[in-house]
Amino acid sequence: MKKYFVLLLSCMFLAVNAQKTTKIGYIDMDYILEKVPEYAEAKNQLEQKANTWKHEIETKKNDITRLKEALASEKVLLTKELITEKEEEIKVLENEMLDYQQKRFGPNGDLIIQKSSLVKPIQDQVFNIVQDIAAKRNFDFIFDKSSDLTMLYSAERFDISDFVLKELERAGKKVELSKKQQKIQEDKEKREFDTKENPEILEKEKAIEATKEAREKKLQERKDALAAKKKEADEKRAELLKQRAEARQKLLDEQKAKREALKNKAADNKTPENKTPENKNQEPKKD
Q1: Which Gene3D superfamilies does this entry report, sorted A to Z (predicted)?
Q2: Taking a C-beta distance cutoff of 8 angstroms, is the pair 189, 166 a contact?
Q3: Average pLDDT, whole number, for the chain?
């Protein structure tokens, strides 16, 4: 009947709280324990002990089996009293082996006791952390997936095991954070929690981001187009200024050439009669 407990409980509270949304979460204690380094190390040591105990039990079983085989082969040669005595010895050894097996692996055996003492401190921590998370995140119920209350269905977004692990790690490190750092950490965890519980938040954010990127792309394309037009206009203006400068220089060169030509023509038109009389009558100076 435990198998249907969660389903029955959920249906019951959904019926009672028809006007209110019931918020349910769960943890996986086995998953959490496997991720805690201290537990994994201690569990490994305990498994080594258990293997040693199993080996001892197996040795006792083999010894008893050999005694039984020896008795079976020697039975025809032994007296009734000796047979009874050996059977009683074997029975005592079997009882001792069973007692030892119960001591190590029974319901109240060493394995269960040591495993319980190993798990309990972590379970207590997890219990306290779950209480805090439930209060902060407004959960109505939080179950343990690995317990006897079998979960017929569990959506991953309601699994808070990783958040519990983070709190355990933080408690283990005992890091002193400033108020600002604590606020940043809490906001980060809240976002992770909210997006895991409501994946549609990420979809909306992706859609908003895609719209923003498309708008920025259009703006950039417009800027690039304007820049290209400006560059083209600047190049045309530079070419026009160059052409004007070349035309002006050509005009100046032509004017200069004309002046030079006029000057040369005037020089060529001068004749000997145009010289002064002093030049005509001047005799060479005698030594």
Answers
A1: Skp domain (3.30.910.20)
A2: yes
A3: 79
